[in-house]
Amino acid sequence: MTVTQHNRSGWVTRLTWALALAALITALASYAASLSDAKADGWIGEKPDGYIGLVRNDAPPDVRALVSDVNAKRRAEYQRIAERQGAPLAEVEKVGGMTAIDKTRPGHYIMDASGRWRRK
Question: Which helix (H) or strand (E) is 117 found in, with range?
Fold first, then answer.
């Protein structure tokens, strides 16, 4: 495989993952209002590992349950993508994190590379 073929192959794989992750975000639409509200209220944010996390430790039980439920669904979808693509789960999670952070609205929280929450 030439360098050009390898680069093209990597790009196609990343694009495939991004499209699959976009489908995941759409599939979670049933949680959209609650998830959107919790993000807007500053309770939760997107993490670079592909999951959501609690920005504040004093989050109410329903927000904590939402985080657990959404993350379980994301993990299942990431695992499905990893198996289908023959890729490591950690790679799929990382692409998911980048995609989710890119799609995060301004003013909502994201976790930076140092593990600190900040507003986008």
Answer: strand 117-119
